[in-house]
Specification:
The protein contains 17 helices and 15 strands. It is α/β, with parallel strands linked by helices and 396 residues long. It has two domains: 213 residues, Rossmann fold (3-Layer(aba) Sandwich); 169 residues, Rossmann fold, CATH 3.40.50.2000. Helix 2 packs across helix 17, helix 8 crosses helix 14 and helix 12 packs across helix 16.
Length: 396
């Protein structure tokens, strides 16, 4: 086991210090003695595609830095497969049926805080009342900015409650981009010194795709959900406008129910007919192959917290087109073609030009692979684990 930025002897000494610091406490009324852990980690969203990948990639490194028997994982009733190696090495797991952003989770947080020196929430579903030392990862503030209908208004209200709790109670806040950090400072008044921006990473498997898969028809690709901030409607409209002049189909990787539940998107599906294909529930291997075989990956978002699909596509050697929203200007600063959100028709013009011109489309592939190489999950995990360890030591 190795600590970040330290030799093996320092790592051993560090874990020994942790073990000597941890104490047990007795349950009220003379109950059974219970161990106190260095850090409790809320893993309830580890099954999801976005935050879930963040949790799955980073928690094992955190376990190595703190000592696997010094961490307590809290998750759903069924132990997740990714956590099995950690549990086999001595990590503890506490099952809960409390869902994120529900009242029942507040009791869960109190119970975790009672037996952990520090609590890490990898999303902003957090305790409302100050308890154990708290670290929170905030991936974006999109629920505050994008409000669609009454459900969006309710989500905004709930997000405001939880983000205010982050401002009040978190000792430190981690973010995935400098853009999100600046929004926390500007919109919520979180002191810059309390925030650390650590970018997400790209899995090594994305860089190993050296052979382009065969495909029956050329296609461009969108990977993500159909939330309003993703601008999927704009992509569908632009593709429809150029579809008569280009050979590519449009493939969307996401939940099909998102299209059937929104009338406008449902209409676009009908208009595009067999030029549009929706894929869902792909394995990681299938997704990587689909990205590697695409002529172009498009992320036309109005707003992002980070925006991982463009970097994964770059690593796979797939050309990328993104909007010029601030987070994507930061995280896809090199290697991506760009269109301007504030120029009407620009997505249509740039998309049509790239799909019709292979040389132009592929002109940034080398630059993109090099840029994506700067973002690895190993680096993200090491920096996050080191930050958590530093925060823990400050609270001793």
């Amino acid at each position: 086991m190795a600590a970040v930025g330290a030799g093996s002897s320092r790592a051993v000494d560090g874990v020994a210090a942790l073990q000597s610091t941890l104490v047990s406490w007795a349950l009220p009324g003379g109950g059974e003695e219970v161990k106190t852990y260095a850090i409790g980690i809320d893993c309830r969203l580890s099954h999801s595609t976005g935050i879930g990948r963040y949790v799955r990639e980073i928690v094992p490194q955190v376990a190595d830095v703190f000592g696997v028997d010094n961490i307590l994982l809290s998750g759903g009733p069924t132990t997740p497969e990714w956590a099995a190696p950690l549990l086999a090495r001595g990590a503890a797991y506490r099952a809960t049926e409390a869902r994120p952003f529900r009242l029942a989770e507040q009791r869960m947080f109190r119970e975790l805080g009672a037996c952990c020196d520090m609590l890490w929430c990898p999303h902003f579903s957090v305790p409302w009342v100050r308890g154990a030392r708290l670290v929170v990862t905030v991936h974006d503030l999109i629920p505050l900015h994008v409000v669609a209908g009454w459900k969006g208004a309710v989500r905004k209200l709930g997000a405001r409650v939880y983000l205010n709790a982050v401002r009040r109670n978190a000792s430190r806040v981690l973010t995935v981009s400098e853009q999100v950090k600046s929004e926390l400072v500007r919109e919520l008044g979180v002191a810059p010194a309390r925030i650390r921006a650590i970018p997400n990473g790209v899995g090594a498997a994305w860089f190993a795709l050296s052979i382009r898969p065969e495909r029956p028809r050329p296609y461009l690709l969108y990977v993500g959900n159909v939330s309003p901030h993703k601008n999927v409607e704009g992509l569908l409209e632009s593709f429809f406008a150029v579809s008569g002049q280009v050979p590519q189909d449009l493939v969307i990787v996401g939940e099909e129910r998102g299209f059937t539940s929104r009338p406008v998107l449902k209409q676009w599906v009908a208009r595009l007919g067999d030029r549009l294909r929706i894929e869902s529930k792909l394995t990681d291997v299938e997704l990587r192959a689909l990205v590697a075989g695409a002529d172009l990956l498009v992320l036309p978002s109005f707003e992002e917290g980070f925006g991982l699909p463009p970097l994964e596509a770059m690593a796979a050697g797939c050309p990328v087109l993104t909007s010029d929203c601030p987070a994507l200007l930061e995280t896809a600063a090199q290697g991506a073609h760009r269109f301007r959100l504030n120029v009407r028709g620009d997505l249509t013009a740039v998309l049509g030009g790239l799909l019709a011109d292979e040389n132009l489309r592929c002109s940034k592939i080398g630059e993109g692979r090099q840029w994506a190489g700067r973002f690895t999950w190993q680096r993200t995990a090491e920096l996050t684990a080191a930050a958590l360890r530093q925060i823990w030591e400050e609270g001793r």
